[in-house]
Amino acid sequence: MRKKRKNELKALFMGTPDIAAACLKALYEKEGVRIIGAVTRPDRQSGRGMKLVFSPVKEFALEHEIPVFQPGTLRDGSFIPVLEELAPDVIFVCAYGNILPHYVIAFPDLGCINAHASLLPKYRGAAPIQRAIMEGEKVTGITAMYMDDGLDTGDMILKLECGIGEDDDLETVHDRLAVLAGEALCRVCDILLRGDELPREPQDSALSTYAKKIEKEDTVIDFSKSADTVVNHIRGLSPSPCAVTRTADGKLLKVAAARTCPAGNWRGQEPLPGTVVSAGDGGIEVQCGRGRVKLLSVIPEGKKRMSAGDFVRGRKVFEGDLLKY
To answer: Based on the domain organization, do 229 and 88 belong to the same domain?
Structure first.
């Protein structure tokens, strides 16, 4: 049954990082949508001076005079009075950072709708962009979905695809998905403003995969794997937190960019994975379990990002060195 066309959507937004701020911006600029509040994670301390840092969502909200809410927890029900006072028609969510309790999800009449950075049911979880690139996917995207009590398990509303090129990394894919996330939620708004029912497509959990949070151990480069796998690993973690290895003297070396390169003879023997087979202005060529990679951009311990050639010219790595964490 067709609902009466809505003249305005009262929307509460929940999110924290840059991709969420891009969604908030798109919704703020969307005709017919009134953002009545932005809920984001508490401020964090950063740097040597432990200065309080606002989330990107909070920064945008303050600049545009949107009320900001930063509950320490939602689980104790203390946010219920805020919801009752705001009375949102719909809650939009993108990368809030915490699982939402049932009372939040069930509160708005039009639903609690999330923009998730994958083509569900693949890559449910906290790190869908990183994991998709690390797994060598050629296509990812944004899924607008109803939230439920599971982890990214709700019914899907619509999907927008985004290609992943061989030269893409976390930054470039993230930035394209940030635009698509805002577009996806705005398309949802179009349907709601027309008074139409949103589509609902249940996920096939048999096809689901889990994109767990990136932990320290996930950043370590395993040169025993194929060159393609090593490069995908590096791309999926660049520019932050970056894939890591250690130089022959034990110093931490972050790798920000790399590409595969043809394998050839080296001193008449098959080098061990992680062996530096050449080091020069063009980069640092490293043996993998199958094939080789050329490190193009690195971040030495205690230094800023530099070309691998500059690192070599600083005499910090030599042919024959073994890179191993």
So the answer is: no
